[in-house]
């Protein structure tokens, strides 16, 4: 059975990155695409979290400003 992408934790991807880095170091650039794909996925996830937090923060700030006036 295939695992859903969201069932994979960021820590799983980070472990995969370490493994892929070791493969690139030991066996060459044939494994680089795996490293790059994992890195892009982790960056995408982290960017999404940052965007959500920023939006929620700005919304809370807007509510505080409205209450002030």
Notes on the structure:
This protein is mainly α and 69 residues long. The chain has one domain. It is built from 2 helices and no strands. The protein has helices at 10-27, 32-68.
Give a concise summary:
The chain has about 70 residues and is mostly helical. It has helices at about 10-25, 30-69.
Roughly what fraction of the amino acids lie in strands? under 5%
Radius of gyration: 19 Å
The number of E-state strands comes to: 0
Choose one word for the global shape.
rod-shaped
Helix content: over 70%
Number of domains: 1
Biggest sheet descriptor: none
In N-to-C order, the SSE pattern is HH
Per-chain topology:
Blueprint: H1 10-27, H2 32-68
Please give a handful of descriptors for the protein shown.
69 residues; mainly alpha; rod-shaped
């Amino acid at each position: 059975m295939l695992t859903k992408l969201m069932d994979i934790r960021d820590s799983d991807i980070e472990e995969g990155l370490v493994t892929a880095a070791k493969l690139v170091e030991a066996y060459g650039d044939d494994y680089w695409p795996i490293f790059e794909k994992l890195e892009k996925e982790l960056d995408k996830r982290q960017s999404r979290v940052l965007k959500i937090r920023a939006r929620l923060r700005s919304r809370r700030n807007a509510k505080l400003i409205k209450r002030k006036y």
